[in-house]
Amino acid sequence: MSLYNVSKEALIGSAALGAVFAVGLWIGGRQVPSYGILNTFKSHTGAKGNPLMGYVLDHSLREHPVLKKLKLRTLEHPENPMMVACEQAQLMANLAKLIKAKKAIEVGVFTGYNALNLALALPADGKVVACDVNEEFTSVGKPFWKEAGVEHKIDLRIQPALQTLDELVAAGEAETFDFAFIDADKANYDQYYEKCLLLIRKGGIIAIDNVLWEGKVLNPEKGDKDTQCIHKLNEKIHRDTRVNISMITVGDGLTLAFKL
Ligand SMILES: C[S@@+](CC[C@H](N)C(=O)[O-])C[C@H]1O[C@@H](n2cnc3c(N)ncnc32)[C@H](O)[C@@H]1O
């Protein structure tokens, strides 16, 4: 083997190693950081041990005693990570009060923490249309709705949420709702958004949950169908001139769309 050949091979080898290193850096730079975006901001799951989150909760949470009881009961449920973050629910209750909301829609109820939260925020003649397909989940919340004295404000409809939203439109309730929270199956998020836009009045608010999807929206091309649906809707809402928006890093990410 001549000196020339050795140098040439070494050169090719170095170039190949360099290329692998560069590709590694590029892929690494695009990956979701390994410190785990997962539930970083959601107080009852990943962020529980975060001292700053503890400070935020200690200095801002004003949870109704029955809401607190329902949260503790929900934490015993194996699907408890699905529950809305209580600090996020409080923000939504404050927004609902700010716009003097009377009629709200909850798309995805689970054990009904936010349905109760909204019902408590609405006036005595207020109404929350609560949409879910799972009676086992919603039955956990019902006794707490009763205990809080707002059971009469929650109109629970056990059937696919799209059907309920269509029924509300057909019943002539378009543009009569003040607040909507979208928090059910991600594949239908775009349709929930469009139907809620029909049902919400001008100046009303649509809150869309999980818009960061545990950080998976950073790599939508590698994500599953849910990730792609959320990412596409995020892009669409960003350009949507029918609403003003803010994307908040509370919970798993919350977009607030203010209907113009
Ligand atoms: C993330 S949880 C909702 C959490 C809830 N907003 C809270 O306050 O804790 C999602 C819920 O959506 C419901 N869901 C899933 N697909 C649905 C559909 N097609 N129509 C209505 N609800 C659905 C599930 O049964 C589940 O209870």
TrEMBL record:
Which Pfam families does the record cross-reference, listed alphabetically? Methyltransf_3
Which keywords are on file for this protein? Methyltransferase, S-adenosyl-L-methionine, Transferase
* Alphabetical list of InterPro entries matching this protein: Cation-dep_OMT, SAM-dependent_MTases_sf, SAM_O-MeTrfase
- Which molecular-function annotations from GO does this UniProt entry contain? O-methyltransferase activity; S-adenosylmethionine-dependent methyltransferase activity
User: Is the Secreted keyword given for this protein?
Assistant: no
Q: Name one GO biological process term.
A: methylation
The entry's family comment says: Belongs to the class I-like SAM-binding methyltransferase superfamily. Cation-dependent O-methyltransferase family.
The name of this protein is: Catechol O-methyltransferase domain-containing protein 1-like isoform X1
Q: Which organism is it from?
A: Acipenser oxyrinchus oxyrinchus
